[in-house]
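Researcher: Next entry: EG45-like domain containing protein (Arachis duranensis).
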Amino acid sequence: MMMMRYFHLALLSTLLFIKLTLILGDVGTATSYGPPYIPTACDGNRREQFPAGNMFVAVNEGLWDNGAACGRRYKIRCLSGDNRPCKGDIIEVKVVDLCHRTPCPTMLLSTIAFSAISRFSNAKINIEYAEI
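Model: Predicted structure:
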C-alpha cells in the first residue's frame, strides 16, 4: 500500500513537471504572417535558415536583441484570444526575422506554426513562451 502511494506521488510529480515547464515563461501576443518570408533580417535569402516543418517566427524589437535573437528557439503555447482560438498544443519555433509591422506583437508566427496552436488563421492570441 505504501509503495502504491509513492508510485502515485512520483507519477503526479512527473506530470506536474511536464505541465509546468512553460509556466516559467513570459507572456506576450502573437499573430500569423504569410509568405513571402524572404529576405529575412537574420540570413537574407538563404532558404536553409528555415527549420524543417517551417516552424519559425519573427520577433519584436524587445526580443530582437540587436540581431542576437537569430537562431534562438522558443517553446510557445496559446493562452487565450477572442472566440477561444487555442488548440492546447505546445510548439517549438526558431527565430528567423525581425518583425517589421507597426505595432508589432511579441511574435509573428509562420502560418504553419500559427495553425499548430490556433484554430483561426487571422486571430490575435495571447501566448506564453520560453527560450529553450
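Model: Note for the record: The two ends are 39 Å apart (CA to CA).
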